[in-house]
Design a protein that fits this description.
Blueprint: E1 3-8, H1 14-21, H2 34-38, E2 44-47, H3 54-60, E3 63-67, H4 71-84, H5 103-115, H6 117-124, E4 131-135, H7 138-151
Parallel strand pairs: 1-2, 1-3, 3-4
Helix pairs in contact: 4-5
Length: 161
Amino acid sequence: MKRIMIIGSGGAGKSTLSKQLGWISTSNDEWDNFQERLVLEESWIIDGNYGRTLDIRMTQADVIILLDFSRWITTYRVIKRRLIYHGKTRPDLNEDCPESLDFEFIKWVWNFKKTKIPGIMEKLMKYQDKKIIVLKSPKNVEKLIKQIKTIGVGYFREGEN
């Protein structure tokens, strides 16, 4: 398992999980052609939804992790994140991109499970040859991290996620 894709609602913890699995941020200069070049590399971890490039990443990924948390968790997290990083740039964002929050984003996060998850699940059906892991709670993420630390990133025990 060398190519890992992580998707889910804002506030689900995509960037946090990516960091725990070994994600390294990309500088602003490299971002323009990032998606096309990166998926050709031998190993990578990409988090984020980036709808127009989902298929590029899904086609090349070995593992697809979907963080499918409740709207209460994700909405709470984006509001909390806004308060923590008020006027600052989060470590997982590009430079000079201060944390912001508006009603449209909160609405998008609140409705993600209803409006986006069905389409993502439909898209995942096309990639049954991949290892697909759907995590429904932060506790499931903790179990996955513990499992990876115990038996290695290349192995997952079926049925424990």
